[in-house]
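Reviewers of the previous submission asked for a worked example of the structure-prediction workflow described in the proposal, so we include one complete record here. The input consisted solely of the amino acid sequence. No template or homolog information was supplied to the procedure at any stage.
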Amino acid sequence: MIIAGFGFRSEVSEEALMEALELAGGLRAEKIATAGDKAVATAFVALAERLGLPVVAVPQEALEAQAVETQSRASLKERGVGSVAEAAALFAAGEGGRLMAPRVVSSDRSATCALAEGPGRGESL
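From that input alone, the workflow returned the following structure tokens.
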């Protein structure tokens, strides 16, 4: 299963999220994931509906437990993890999941996306 994990700023647009997904090569993703508190953001919900994909809302402690490649200072300060996108994708990919590539950033820098593959987790919104 391929999971697209997202990190994004509060003012993100659906278009920026879609651009990040396309840049990551994630149009074949089977689920999308992000931090639990961001999973209800208007643009993120709109993206999930547009793609017809289930959402995995990742708890903060699960984000912090993931070993990510990218170490963004802003993400570390705000979320305690180097990349929310990578951490969300890895968590949602399940046991033995692996990151397919480091996260990519939308051109307006409001969204990041990373892909992971693995057996997947059952819980979704």
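The two ends are 17 Å apart (CA to CA). We consider this example representative of the routine output the project will generate in years two and three.
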